[in-house]
Amino acid sequence: MKRISLVAIAWVCASLAAAGVTAQEEGPAPLLLILDASGSMWGQIEGENKIVIARRVVRELLEDWDPNVHLGLVAYGHRREGDCADIETLIPPGAVDPARVAGAVEGINPKGKTPLSDAVIHAARELRYEESKATVILVSDGIETCDRDPCEVGRALEEAGADFTVHVIGFDVEENEVLAQLRCLAENTGGEFSAASDAGSLKIALDRAVRRVRIYLRAPEIVFGGVGFEVEWSGPDGPGDKIVIVPKGFPEGSLGVPAATADGSPAHLVGPATSGPHEVRYVSGADGSTLLALEITARGAEATLEAPASIAAGGELEVIWTGPAASGDLIALVPASDPDERYFTGRFSASTSAGSPAKLQVFSDPGEYELRYLATRGARVLARRPITVTPVSVSIEMPSEVEAGAEFDLSWSGPARQGDRLVLVAAGTREGTYSTKRDFTQPASAGSPLRLTAYSEPGAYEVRYMAGADGRTFASVPLDITPSTARIDAPARVAAGEEFEVRWSGPNAAGDRIVLVEASAAEGTYFTSSAYARPTSGGSPVTLRALPDPGSYEVRYLAEGDGKTLARAPVQIDPTP
Fold first, then answer.
1. Integer Cα distance of 254 and 290 in angstroms
2. Are 297 and 277 in contact (CB under 8 A)?
3. Same domain, 368 and 340
4. Residue of higher predicted confidence among 67 and 403
5. How far apart are CA 343 and CA 349, in angstroms?
6. DSSP one-letter string for 60-80
7. Are residues 372 and 452 located together in one domain of the fold?
8. CA atoms of 265 and 176, how far apart (whole Å)
9. Residues 371-393, buried b or exposed e (16+ Cβ, 10 A)?
10. How many structural domains comprise the chain?
């Protein structure tokens, strides 16, 4: 059998903060790392001795050491061969002198056996584990060789200690028997077991173990679904670090709804919707790993929903509900086939903070839907109720064709709900898109009949009854807009400042005008003075006045709806004689 060596270094760690907040903050909490210097540490990984790798990793770990973390060092097997009592405290726990620690580690040369269990006992006593919190970190490449059972030693120390923990790192360990023994020692003291196969993974595992020692979590033993609770914590507070609650045994990296440590202590979380064992975890922002987990019990929340079994498309749904009404809880209507975590913002969901009953907008598409009580911002469904959305009856009566720019009346019937409207759009226009000008759209609340104005461009159009909830079309009727027959009769030449008469014919829609503009004027622009622009509502003819500057001009029939010109006639303004 391969001869076993163990690296176990005993450290002392504490976070120095305001006295009296937590027991951890009152003084240094002992931590030990024991360096196993038995013969197998001369074994190699990729051509480099394991003891050499361990020395280098400890040196690198000390380079950015937190001065608030105290450190002590113990080694065994480094002085005599075959001596199970060869265990020595090289540096007692205290403030860290990186050069001193590195020098002590450099001076260790593997020779002896692996009194793993006695080394842990030695470390526990060195740290006065029966009186205060004490933690040991072990980095081991093998199994106990001095007739002790690490599992039993761990169990006994855990029972006798005030708060005793051993974190174990298996270094270049492949045998199942060895892995099981090392894992057992860690688990029996509430610690963590990690495996390392090279220098990089050894440094990561050591750094993770040190960070765990600095972390403290305190939360209620029992929390209730949908109800907020506080978690007191201390820890490294690294970039992206989080406090989360998840079901016990959830995979690493499962965050639920986290609270960032950057927001300070206490962290504010919400009890989960499901009952059973859960864990409050301190999660590293660097790699998503759990640095510390605290087991608590969750009692799931209950909720009820009362609503009709069916409702017409596009309507408003009133929901009577009961539930925890925690921050972020929602009452939502969703398609029945949608996953639990999906919901729509806006009027299709309502915050429980608004009270019961909740009022929701119904989708415009008929079909099978589901009403849901969503807890913790959609993370859990506490209650659900099926709802059938039925079709809506809508009719529109109007002419099949209209001249460009002309007004036309239409009669309609439909639900006339809030936001519903009748709109005129080009055929094929995307659902929910329309011009907001009142010439081309009117709210259903205005009643029936309604009057709209045809666009100035001939072509295929349609009038739609559009649902205010989501812009869906409940009914549509095609409309052919034919070319305009508008005409302008005006003198070919007039003198500057002279009044002249213009005869016209055209749709005479509300807001239409006869205007005098420069021949190069942009479409839809004109002078607002009544001398140069007259409404068609005054009939034909209209009287305009020539502008004072000679040049080329136009008299135009200007449609109010879209500002387009339906007819035009050139006018030359000559200088005043």
1. 10
2. yes
3. yes
4. 403
5. 7
6. HHHHT--TTS-EEEEEESSS-
7. no
8. 41
9. bbbbbbebebbbbebebebeebe
10. 5
Q: How far is CA 575 from CA 370, 491, 497, in A?
A: 77, 15, 9
Joined tokens for residue 247:
């079901």
Q: Domain of 380: which CATH number?
A: 2.60.40.10
CA atoms within 13 A of residue 121's CA, in its CB half-sphere? 14
For residues 226 and 214, give the distance between their C-alpha atoms in angstroms, rounded to a whole number: 30
Domain range for 408? 395-482
Structure token digits, residue 129: 């584990």
Has residue 449 been placed in a domain? Answer: yes
Query: Burial letters for 248-278: b for 16+ Cβ neighbours within 10 Å, e otherwise?
Result: eebeeeeebbbbebeeebebebbbbbeeeeb
* 15, pLDDT greater than 50: no
pLDDT of residue 376: 63
- Bridge partners (DSSP) of residue 411 are 397
Look at phi and psi of residue 542 and say left if phi exceeds 0, alpha if psi is from -120 to 50, else beta: beta
Alpha-carbon torsion (109, 110, 111, 116), positive or negative:
positive
Dump pLDDT digits (tens) for 458-516.
Answer: 999 999 999 987 888 999 999 999 999 999 999 999 999 999 999 999 999 999 999 99
**What's the token pair of residue 299?**
């009692």
Q: How many CA atoms lie within 13 A of 14 on its CB side?
A: 23
Rounded Cα–Cα distance for residues 526 and 272 (Å)? 66
Of 380 and 335, the structure prediction assigns the larger pLDDT to 335
CA 173 to chain centre: 40
| 95 and 183, same domain (yes or no) | yes
Of 419, 426, 458, 473, residue with least CA distance to 442 = 419
Q: Are strands 499-505 and 487-489 parallel, antiparallel or unpaired?
A: antiparallel
- Residues composing the chain: 577
Reported pTM: 0.47
Degrees (nearest 5) of the Cα angle 168, 240, 194? Answer: 15
Residue 536: count of CB within 10 angstroms of its CB: 23
CA count, 13 A, side-chain hemisphere, 142: 23
Buried-exposed string 421-449: b where 16+ CB fall within 10 A, e elsewhere: bbbbbeeebeeeebbeeebbbbebeeebe
Asked if residues 213 and 13 have their Cβ atoms less than 8 Å apart, the reply is: yes
Q: CA 24 to CA 29: how far, in whole Å?
A: 6
- Is 271 strand, coil or helix? coil
